[in-house]
Amino acid sequence: MATINLDIDVLRTLVTAQRLGGFGRAAEQVGRSQSAVSQQIHKLEERVGLPLFRKQGRGLELTEAGETVLSYARRIVELNDEAVTAVRGASIDGAVRFGLAGDFAEAGLPEALGRFARAHPSVRVEAMVERNATLLDRLDRGQLDLALTLGHGNRPGAERIGTLPLVWIGRADAAPRRPNEPVPLALFEGNCFCRTTAIDALDAAGLPWRVAFTSPSLHGLWAAVEAGLAVTVRTQMGLPASLAVLGRGSGLPPLGRTDFSMHGGSGGASAAVARFKEIMVAIVAERLAAVPAAQVSAVAA
Predict the structure, then answer these.
(1) Domain annotation covers residue 212
(2) Which of 79, 183, 245, 280 has its CA 20 to 30 A from that of 110?
(3) pLDDT digits (tens, 9 = 90+) for 133-148
């Protein structure tokens, strides 16, 4: 059987289209017309011998074969870029001081650190996990080079990577709340936009509430919710497997959406910082793309 070689440019287009939510946006990103991109995908389908997309309403969705090709395409493109970077960027050194919200600590940081270290072993990375307000304060003080936050997408210089809906989170087996019983909340200490969102939504719906637990850390909130003490408000990014999104049947009011944003320091980015940012943004975009399409809105770079 003859070996079939897949065109990496086409695989990159497929990955880009899936990340940005359509061939039109992908065409702009890769510098081709939409018809040229469609032709690329058609040739890829011919190479693998199976359709990669099927019609879903007015749009398209991946077939089972398409999902398989996409998963390999991500890895192939990543390895290609890593190899090129390792050769061209071997001389990059220095340090990167990076801070991120707890939502990303397990969802993307390990992969970003591993990918970056393989390509730039001479660069020292100092990473810290903190609340958004602390990260932005340290960034403004020159103590961080980059900060990845939940929210703050309108802050000057912020690069919005995408958005996700805010959701109520609790135990899947929690007993239904009794009528007129205050909603028990697990919240961060002090000011926090998730705290404000939860309280404002409950007040607008005329539902009583009480603060049942406060914590300075996200792990503390998860522990309280897992113990059944309260519910909380976050996105699904980094949601522990033991917890669940509480739907309409919970009687809790709907919430809005929030940005995922990357912020850089005012002093300009070194080559090491710029490369780390590129890797982290790509990984977060991949995580957003893994969320069901109805719940995620990707932002074109």
Answers:
(1) yes
(2) 245
(3) 889 999 999 899 999 9
